[in-house]
Amino acid sequence: MLDGKTILVTGGTGSFGKKFTQMILDKYDIKKLIVFSRGELKQAEMKAKFDNHPKLRFFIGNVRDKERVYRAFDGVDIVIHAAALKRVPECEYNPFEAIKTNVNGAQNVIDAAIDKGIEKVVALSTDKAANPINLYGATKLCSDKLFTAGNAYAGGKNTKFGVVRYGNVMGSRGSVIPFFKKMKETGTLPITDTRMTRFWITLEDAVKLVLKALDEMQGGEIFVPKIPSMKVTDLAEAIAPECEHEVVGIRPGEKLHEVMIPRASSRHTIEFEDHYIIEPDYDWWGKENHPDGKKLEKEFEYNSGNNDQWLSVEEMRKLIEELD
């Protein structure tokens, strides 16, 4: 699927970008992979980590800078858009900055992809974009809408846009695992609410979802994986069974349960064995594009609280050990 292709990853020095790079270099005979990101130090560290791999290129730039995005997209076949401001408290405190990166940056990627003749673009989303209650989720919902509509915006051009939406990524820089490990030295772990649940996915499975989207997308879909949920109290038990729990209350912008498919989207969502596809609700969408999908029941909602897959304490402990 990717052999002989030139691939660019925005935000490529992040947790996802590094895992994606590793798996692509291991699995495919690509022409080259371009890491597009802001920080020269992180690029230098990543270049050293991959031992100056001959098929890796590093391009300093920001998705906010439209001219730089256009320059980076020259000769590129496939774009994975992973760049974002994603920490909820920081986005709440710096809303204009979050909008510049997550919304305006998305539009720059879309414009450049169409004008430069990119074949496929897959944008990374988040469960917080479904029924958002914080600014980060709201900006990612806007981004999802932009990438979906980008397929119509492309007009006669052949560029296809798709989105993947998944939950908390184990091992990412925003994961609560390092925080809990640090806090266990105090003997007490802060728990926002004992009822709280979250979706959980590994970096490897996140990359596999992107590859599935690249393979199956017709343009306009949001791919949602079937992944397990976990209870925050169980995660705390898995990391530090000896610690007490202190309930500190839900922080601004947090939910008890995260949603990946809202009820309002169920009428145009189809189900497969290991994932769902939220189809675009536009008249240009061909209903025959995914004929094998099963229609969902009305009022269906896929959230981390009503999930039928759950990680046990022991399963989480094993995953964390493998991660270490």
UniProtKB/TrEMBL annotation:
Polysaccharide biosynthesis protein CapD-like domain mapped to chain residues: 7-279
Name its species. Halanaerobium saccharolyticum
Record's superkingdom? Bacteria
User: What is the protein named?
Assistant: UDP-N-acetylglucosamine 4,6-dehydratase
Residues spanning the signal sequence = none
| Family the UniProt entry places it in | Belongs to the polysaccharide synthase family.
Q: Which CDD domains match?
A: UDP_invert_4-6DH_SDR_e (cd05237)
Q: Coiled-coil regions in this chain?
A: none
